[in-house]
Amino acid sequence: MFDSVRVRLTFWYTGVLALVLILLAVVTYLFYARDISQRIDSNLFELSDAYITTFHAELGQQTDSEAAKSAAREAMVEHRFRDTIFALLGPNGEVLTSSLELPAVASGSKEQIGPEIFRTDSFRSLLANSPRGTAALLRNVDGGRSGLRAYLRPLNVASQAYRLVVMQSLHPRRELLEDVRDTFLWIIPIVLVLASVGGYFLARKSLAPVVVMAMQAQNMGAQNLQGRLAVPNRRDELGQLALSFNQLLERLEQTFERQRRFISDASHELRTPVAILRGETDVTLSRSDRSPAEYRESLAILRDESQRLTHIIEDLFTLTRADAGQYPIALREFYLDELAGEVLHQARSLVIPKQIVLTSSVESDLLFRGDEALLRRLLLNLLENAIKYTPVGGTILLKAGKAANQFFVSVTDSGPGIPPDLHERIFERFFRVDKARARAESDTGGAGLGLSIARWIAEAHHGRLVVSRSDSTGSTFTASFPVQDAKSAATPS
Question: What is the pTM of this model?
Fold first, then answer.
């Protein structure tokens, strides 16, 4: 049962509401009880003041004890109230007269209070703890159904010290508090039941889009990632969740598509050299009368295809480690102009067979912080790509410098150019612009991974590699690196 989010939300909501209601009921009950007690005490003060005023008016100029008793009785007649008792005590605490001796006020009260109240231990304790002739005293005494609240104060007549006791029954207070308690005991369960039912339906309605999204997500897989979740309201939390999930699906679809294309292209590229190796080996082993020159020719073919296969596997391994973020970046400071000169010197042997003119324009003192080996590989890949597609007798220009707070290196060739709509696709793995930049038949070079690796190297140094120009006169590849990032730790992307 608690596996359902709706049920858990309902229980949490009901539990919190129950805690709030119980706390509210307790606080209300305590405040109400204190307020009633204060009202009773205040009423006792007022009754005693009014009684003493009437008492002195009835007494007049008389000072003997009989006159005091008579005046007290007359004052009690005028101040007869339901559940209220007046008593005049003598100097020794004896009861001279009390309102209990008068006819009871007609009322619906079931209180049965008699003169025995003055003989209870609590009343005697009240007298014993009261300093004679000084301060007044408030205390609860036993009697009736729920006890009484007693107010004892001095009452002086000439040289005689009397004491006045005003007592009021606490039974009405108890009945009121019981009504309040019973009201809460009825209302709280009813409110909790209604809130639980309403909360469950609200939770069910609120989570209905989640149920729909879960059902849609269950029907999705690697083969049908084209589906998207419905977004009923883009501004609420569930709409934002659906949008985030759809964006995740979009990225997954692109990743799976790249993975499928990568596997297909890698299989195709690896199948060709493997087929050549196997075919050439079969042909060589099928004849036993071959000359040494023919064996050497076959071995040369096997060597070239093995080198090509090794190069493809190394590039794949590099990209795999780069995608997993596991390729180590060895940072150090070096001069970019010196690295460009070394790479240019290495590439001169590659342009001799095609009689390509290799020139450079490199600024001096280009202090750079990065992975020197990776930057060397980026430059070599760009130069090899340019040499591969530059026709015989063409030109290649290598430039390096600093402009607008950025380091840059660029390679310009005089090849056939790249169509504008393919400027980004050429950086995809195994992609070649076969019609515009076809490889020579004798070329057994790369498999379309060089530019992909070069772009990753640029991004690992917080830079970018783009085709900055390409037309019928040739193409220019430019890698740029922000100066501030070049001085900080580079991280693989």
Answer: 0.49
CA distance 350 to 436: 22
Q: How far is CA 100 from CA 81, 106, 152, in A?
A: 11, 13, 17
What single letter denotes the amino acid at residue 5?
A: V
Same domain (yes/no): 333, 471:
yes
With a pLDDT cut of 70, the percent of the chain lying above it is: 86
Distance CA 464, CA 480 (A): 6
Q: What is the pLDDT of residues 371-389, one digit of tens each?
A: 898 899 899 889 988 998 8
Instruction: Assess contact for 33 and 177: CB atoms under 8 A.
Output: yes
Nearest one of 335, 316, 332, 325 to 491, comparing CA atoms: 325
Residue 407's DSSP bridge partners are 402, 481
Q: Above 70 in pLDDT, residue 268?
A: no
Kindly tell me the sign of the dihedral angle through the C-alpha atoms of 367, 372, 374, 379: positive
3-class secondary structure, 60? coil
- In this predicted model, what pLDDT tens digit does every residue of 328-360 receive, in sequence order? 888 889 999 999 999 988 888 888 888 899 999
Where is average pLDDT lowest: 94-98, 174-178, 322-326, 479-483?
A: 322-326
pLDDT computed for residue 442 by the predictor: 38
Does the pLDDT at position 103 exceed 80? Answer: no
Whether residue 409 sits in one domain with residue 266: no
Of the given ranges (212-226, 277-291, 370-384), which has the lowest mean pLDDT? 212-226
DSSP of 172-191, one letter per residue? HHHHHHHHHHHHHHHHHHHH
Beta strands in 130-256 (DSSP E): 137-141, 148-157, 160-169
Please state, in angstroms and rounded to a whole number, the distance separating the CA atoms of residues 232 and 241: 11
Residue 474, H or E segment: strand 474-482
Distance, in Å, from the CA atom of 265 to the CA atom of 294, rounded to the nearest integer, reads 33
Identify the domain containing residue 247 by its residue range: 237-322
Calpha distance 83→52 (Å, rounded): 19
Please indicate, yes or no, whether residues 334 and 315 belong to a single structural domain of this protein.
no
Q: Do 283 and 298 form a contact (C-beta atoms < 8 A)?
A: yes
Please return the burial class of 241, using the count of CB atoms within 10 Å of its CB with bins 0-12, 13-18 and 19+: middle
Both tokens of 187, joined, read 């209302």
Q: What is the DSSP letter of 104?
A: P
Q: What is the CATH number of the domain that holds 80?
A: 3.30.450.20
Cα separation, 191 vs 187, whole angstroms: 6
Q: Which residues in 19-159 belong to E strands, given as ranges?
A: 84-89, 95-98, 137-141, 148-157
User: How many CA atoms, within 13 angstroms, populate the side-chain half-sphere of residue 155?
Assistant: 31
When divided into structural domains, the chain yields a total of 3
So what's the pLDDT on residue 432? 65
CB–CB of 265/430 below 8 Å? yes
- Residue 362 in domain: yes
**CB 409, CB 399: distance < 8 Å:** yes
Digit-coded pLDDT (tens) for 20-56: 999 999 999 999 899 998 999 899 899 989 988 998 8
